[in-house]
């Protein structure tokens, strides 16, 4: 699967947009089913929501997550009732599909996903200009745990002690040993 370990910045959900999008969709689905009488029963409904999400066709990949994982759509009891003559696939047919056609389906899903990510990145970059900073500069850090709307929005000053990539920095207060990983959008120059 070529999974890679990636660190993300705290209080910056844009770092892991795909996970945030899935969470938002699942929360939305839960809100529809967990109205007044079901609010305390969401843990019982969650596996059903998960199955519904995984068996729904994804707009970007144009196939369901279930299909991408198993190479077939799930067989539901209602499918057997409405169409009792469902053709059962033999192991040989399934293996042939998995070795030839499924690779193509996965490649197409990756292409669709990459195209969508490029479009979203272009849109994001047009909308948001990220400022760059240098090691040694003094900055203010966005205050994540503000007390109400009238509380201070920034705290600091902090000194940039390390640059990690294009948009992530390690900052530290003077006379402190605590270091914080921050995204460029969470800091501004201290004047």
Question: How do you describe this structure in short?
Answer:
The protein is of the alpha+beta class and 191 residues long.
Keywords for this structure?
alpha+beta; SH3 type barrels; 5 strands; 2 domains; 41% helix; five-stranded antiparallel β-sheet; elongated; 191 residues
Biggest β-sheet description: 5 strands, antiparallel
* Strands, total number: 5
* Domains (count): 2
What order do the strands of the largest sheet run in, or round the barrel if closed? 4-3-2-1-5
User: What radius of gyration results from the CA coordinates?
Assistant: 24 Å
Molecular structure report:
The protein has 6 helices and 5 strands. The chain is α+β, with helices and mostly antiparallel strands and 191 residues long. The mean pLDDT is 81. The chain has helices spanning 17-33, 42-54, 65-70, 77-82, 91-99, 101-127; strands spanning 138-142, 154-164, 168-173, 179-183, 187-189. It has 2 domains: 13-127, no CATH class; 138-189, SH3 type barrels (Roll). Strands 4-3-2-1-5 form a 5-stranded antiparallel beta sheet, with no helix packed on it. Strand 3 (168-173) and strand 4 form a beta hairpin.
């Amino acid at each position: 699967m070529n999974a890679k370990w990636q660190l993300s910045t705290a209080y910056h959900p844009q770092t892991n947009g795909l996970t945030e999008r899935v969470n938002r969709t699942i929360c939305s689905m839960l809100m529809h089913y967990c109205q007044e009488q079901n609010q305390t029963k969401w843990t019982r409904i969650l596996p059903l929501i998960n199955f519904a999400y995984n068996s729904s066709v994804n707009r970007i990949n144009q196939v369901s997550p279930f299909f991408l994982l198993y190479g077939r759509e799930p067989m539901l009891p209602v499918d057997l009732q409405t169409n009792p003559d469902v053709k059962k696939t033999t192991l040989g047919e399934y293996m042939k599909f998995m070795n030839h056609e499924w690779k193509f389906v996965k490649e197409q899903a990756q292409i669709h996903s990459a195209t969508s990510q490029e479009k979203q990145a272009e849109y994001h970059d047009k909308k948001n200009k990220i400022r760059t900073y240098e090691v040694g500069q003094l900055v203010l850090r966005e205050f994540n745990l503000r007390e109400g709307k009238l509380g201070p929005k920034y705290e600091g000053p902090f000194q940039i002690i390390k640059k990690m990539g294009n948009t992530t920095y390690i900052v530290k207060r003077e006379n402190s040993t605590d270091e914080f990983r921050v995204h460029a959008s969470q800091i501004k120059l201290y004047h």
